[in-house]
């Protein structure tokens, strides 16, 4: 829509939104009940109709009729509801005409909303709260209604109530108007930014057809997926959908949504790049012995680069001293500034680095009491970190590399500036594109995607991004975004996204005076979608960012780095969150560490797989022991209900593998629950179903629960994470030692469906008590159970209707099957419950 901001040179024109209303919205009553008056009563929740999305499954509306209704009621109706009482609404202000007919636009919307904001801001607080609550109800009703058009995030076709023929431009316009109204309402009526407004407009307004256009204009398929996770507002998503990526020598034809192949470095074939194509200048660098001498002195080298051309360039090594001013470069090796074989770079690159440092010396102040004539030195990993010959480095090379790794935190923490070099950023002039586009280009750059550069960014005191005309401090981008948010409504949401991403770096390491420092939950969120070419480098980066022992990490072998990280983690701020035992990531296999992730990076296609908490209390932490992680959680001791009666085959009506991974559980309180197995690498193999695991009578099982499901403060409104573990004896201490077996989601059976499982259970218990299984054939028994099921359904119409709503098969056959499974003992019982303060040692 016309009111949403776009980049300086958008890749295409704005969408044309056709005007399809056959009747404009008439404010003849309450906006919420307008659908009833307009002939769409199913939209309004009532006892007569189910939820609109559920109704649409069985009674799908015609796409053209739904377009007309939604445009009249939501687009024009909401604008009328907000603006009319202030005499700021005229429907014709939003309708234009061209050669193709009438269309909808929003060219006057920002002006009208700004005027409206000025009037309501001066209202008394109670009046503002009343208006906010009323408009909030309207926005939520609009969101619930439009949801019938949209499927799951990242798909081009939905699952529930999706209308594939609904005009995507009209859908996007509905989301855009609702999104901007939400911003205006939050900005004008809230005293804080703790919004309760709906936030699903970005998902609803995403244009799947635009994805292909982005790929044609330089985007990598993986970038398109990732940025939707990081930019949460419709304004920001619309902005970058129109943004072209510069060509930097890499097409993405062979890339996939799983990752960009150009970011994965093969050290065996890597070639350092010259500044210009065809350049043949030689590569030089510091003397290795001088670099190692600095590292052995428990310091690190900084470099002085001299010369006017490639023929007289020289590099001098100096040991860092207290307050030595220097620039540490942060770059992506895919841009060609790395060197895996020697601490050298082409002379042309050395001159370039010196030129960038000279520009900083002129344009960036050192500090309050320092002068601009102080010399800035250089630190670059390609020149200051000794290399190892792959794949078999010498012992001396490994020692030198460990010395450099141990100093990495000091290098970036003490740097006067950390200067980001990314080829895509250096193709744009900051003064031309402005702070918003500059920030979005930083956060969609290749530099932002890498794990090593994250470490370098969070340690920096002053983080600068190099553009074609100047280096820009990240704090400058944050301040500009905040100022634009306060001054211009169109930047209210997009500025919020930019601010949050800027703060995501500062919060980790530079949260302010008195900050306790970085913690694992913050790190996990920040790096979950960042890549690293060498997987074993991940714990190096995390260790440095968390300010853990660099010497121990540097001394660890590649294979033991992650275990070394977890051993050091108790010393990090907030320690090890106890909820980590529920993580669904690949796990370590070493003894006592099967609870620990082997990596905390995650696929963009999964829901968050790393269960974390920001709770500061000691009770939220786990305690690392020689046998595992000690934690406090509620739990149930569970077992398979009973063996099958004598005379019946064990495979009678046996459920398939999918059903065997979703098992019903009977609690002593009479409630029924379900345990559903989650995919998990590193625990039970995929071929082991939840049922087959729990059927092992040689083991005692407990399911450790993230929350206490029976307390009033924790209602089972959603799934709760659980860990099924087997009980092992322990020689020391009083805690029970548990061996992690499989992750589950635990959820109470809905109240309206619980009678199904209870009816099947009651029928099965009755059959057990009244029949001689030895004298009956399976066919006779099956017929008897079927007759009982038919009779139960005929005498209980409510139960029969519940079956119809829950299952797709014949009710009597479904009840027969469930009854036989209960008869065979294919459900679980809770034998014992343990409270919130129960302590376990989890391997």
What attributes does this structure have?
single chain, 843 residues, alpha+beta, 7-stranded mixed β-barrel, 23 strands
Can you walk me through this structure?
It is a single chain. With 843 residues, this protein is α+β, with helices and mostly antiparallel strands. Among the domains are: 17-206, no CATH class; 283-486 and 503-523, no CATH class; 754-827, no CATH class. The strands form five sheets. A seven-stranded mixed β-barrel has the order 16-19-20-21-18-17-22. Strands 9-7-10-11-12 form a five-stranded mixed β-sheet. It has a three-stranded antiparallel β-sheet with strand order 1-3-2. Strand 14 and strand 15 (629-632) form a beta hairpin. Helix 3 runs parallel beside helix 6, helix 5 (125-146) runs antiparallel to helix 6 and helix 26 crosses helix 27. Mean pLDDT is 84; it is low at 151-160, 367-371, 509-516 and 711-717.
SSE blueprint and pairings:
Elements: E1 17-18, H1 34-37, H2 52-58, H3 63-83, E2 95-98, E3 101-104, H4 109-120, H5 125-146, H6 168-189, H7 201-205, H8 208-216, H9 221-230, H10 234-241, E4 283-284, H11 288-296, E5 301-306, E6 314-319, E7 326-331, E8 345-346, H12 347-363, E9 377-379, H13 381-384, H14 395-406, H15 408-414, E10 417-421, H16 430-443, H17 451-459, E11 463-466, E12 471-473, H18 474-487, H19 492-509, H20 520-527, H21 538-545, H22 550-555, H23 561-568, E13 576-577, E14 621-624, E15 629-632, E16 635-640, H24 657-660, E17 662-666, E18 672-677, H25 690-694, E19 701-705, E20 720-728, E21 736-748, H26 754-770, H27 778-795, H28 797-806, H29 811-823, E22 828-834, E23 839-842
Parallel strand pairs: 7-9, 7-10, 10-11, 17-22, 21-23
Antiparallel strand pairs: 1-3, 2-3, 4-8, 5-6, 11-12, 13-14, 14-15, 15-23, 16-19, 16-22, 17-18, 18-21, 19-20, 20-21
Helix pairs in contact: 3-5, 3-6, 4-6, 5-6, 10-19, 16-18, 16-19, 17-19, 17-21, 18-19, 21-23, 26-27, 26-29, 27-28, 27-29
């Amino acid at each position: 829509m016309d009111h949403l901001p776009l980049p300086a040179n958008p890749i295409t024109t704005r969408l044309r939104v056709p005007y399809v209303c056959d009747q404009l919205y008439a404010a003849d009553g309450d906006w919420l009940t307008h659908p009833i008056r307009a002939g769409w009563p199913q939209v309004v929740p009532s006892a007569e109709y189910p939820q609109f999305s559920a109704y649409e499954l069985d009674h799908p509306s015609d796409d053209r009729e739904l377009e007309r209704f939604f445009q009249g009621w939501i687009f024009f109706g909401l604008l009328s509801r907000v603006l009319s009482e202030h005499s700021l609404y005229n429907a014709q202000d939003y309708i234009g005409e061209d050669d193709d007919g009438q269309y909808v636009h929003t060219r006057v919307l920002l002006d009208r909303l700004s005027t409206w904001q000025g009037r309501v801001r001066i209202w008394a607080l109670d009046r503002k709260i009343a208006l906010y609550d009323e408009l909030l109800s309207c926005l939520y009703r609009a969101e619930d209604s439009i949801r019938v058009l949209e499927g799951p995030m990242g798909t081009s076709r939905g699952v529930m109530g999706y209308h594939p023929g609904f005009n995507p431009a009209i859908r996007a316009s509905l989301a855009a108007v609702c999104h901007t109204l939400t911003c205006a309402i939050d900005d004008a009526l809230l005293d804080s930014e703790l919004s309760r407004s709906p936030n699903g407009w970005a998902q609803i307004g995403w244009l799947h057809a635009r994805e292909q256009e982005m790929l044609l204009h330089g985007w990598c398929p993986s970038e398109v997926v990732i940025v939707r996770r990081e930019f949460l507002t419709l304004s920001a998503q619309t902005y970058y959908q129109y943004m072209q990526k510069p060509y930097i020598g890499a097409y993405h034809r062979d890339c996939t949504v799983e990752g960009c192949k150009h970011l994965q470095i093969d050290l065996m074939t890597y070639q350092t790049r010259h500044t210009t194509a065809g350049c043949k200048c030689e590569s030089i660098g510091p003397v290795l012995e001088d670099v190692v001498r600095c590292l052995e002195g428990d310091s690190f080298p900084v470099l002085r680069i001299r010369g006017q051309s490639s023929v007289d360039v020289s590099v001098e090594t100096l040991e860092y001293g207290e307050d030595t001013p220097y620039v540490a470069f942060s770059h992506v090796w895919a841009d060609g500034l790395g060197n895996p074989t020697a601490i050298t770079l082409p002379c042309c690159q050395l001159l370039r680095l010196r030129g960038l440092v000279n520009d900083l010396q002129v344009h960036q102040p050192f500090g309050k009491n320092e002068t601009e004539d102080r010399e800035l030195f250089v630190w670059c990993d390609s020149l200051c970190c000794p290399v190892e010959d792959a794949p078999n480095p010498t012992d001396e090379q490994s020692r030198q590399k460990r010395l450099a790794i141990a100093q990495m935190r000091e290098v970036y923490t003490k740097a006067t500036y950390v200067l980001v070099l990314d080829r895509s950023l250096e193709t744009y002039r900051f003064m031309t594109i402005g702070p918003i586009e500059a920030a979005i280009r930083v956060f969609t750059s290749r530099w932002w995607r890498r794990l090593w550069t994250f470490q370098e960014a969070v340690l920096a005191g002053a983080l600068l991004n190099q553009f074609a005309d100047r280096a820009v401090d990240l704090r400058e981008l944050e301040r500009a975004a905040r100022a634009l948010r306060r001054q211009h409504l169109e930047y209210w949401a997009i500025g919020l996204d930019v601010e949050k991403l800027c703060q995501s770096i500062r919060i980790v390491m530079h949260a302010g005076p008195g900050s306790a420092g970085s913690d694992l939950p913050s790190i996990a969120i920040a790096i979950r979608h960042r890549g690293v070419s060498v997987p074993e480098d991940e714990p190096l980066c995390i260790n440095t960012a968390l300010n853990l022992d660099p010497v121990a990490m540097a001394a660890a072998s590649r294979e033991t780095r992650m275990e070394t990280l977890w051993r050091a983690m108790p010393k990090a701020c907030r320690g090890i969150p106890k909820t980590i035992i529920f993580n669904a990531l690949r796990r370590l296999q070493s003894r006592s560490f099967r609870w620990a992730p082997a990596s905390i990076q995650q696929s963009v296609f999964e829901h968050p797989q790393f269960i974390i908490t920001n709770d500061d209390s000691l009770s939220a932490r786990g305690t690392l022991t020689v046998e595992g992680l000690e934690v406090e959680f509620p739990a149930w001791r569970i077992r398979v209900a009973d063996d099958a009666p004598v005379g019946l085959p064990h495979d009678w009506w046996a459920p398939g593998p999918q059903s065997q991974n979703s098992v019903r559980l009977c609690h002593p309180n009479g409630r029924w629950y379900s345990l559903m197995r989650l995919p998990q690498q590193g625990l039970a193999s995929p071929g082991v179903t939840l049922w087959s695991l729990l059927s092992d009578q040689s083991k005692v099982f407990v399911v450790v629960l993230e929350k206490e499901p029976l307390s009033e403060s924790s209602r089972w409104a959603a799934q709760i994470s659980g860990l099924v573990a087997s009980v092992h004896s322990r020689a020391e201490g009083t805690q029970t030692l548990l061996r992690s077996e499989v992750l589950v989601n635990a959820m109470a059976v809905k109240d309206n469906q619980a009678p199904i499982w209870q009816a099947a259970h009651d029928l099965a218990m009755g059959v057990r008590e009244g029949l001689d299984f030895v004298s009956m054939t399976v066919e006779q028994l099956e017929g008897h159970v079927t007759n009982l099921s038919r009779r139960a359904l005929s005498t209980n119409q409510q139960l029969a209707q519940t079956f119809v709503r829950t299952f797709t098969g014949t009710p009597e056959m479904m009840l027969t099957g469930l009854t036989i499974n209960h008869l065979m003992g294919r459900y679980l019982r809770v034998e014992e419950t343990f409270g919130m303060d129960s302590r376990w040692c989890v391997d």
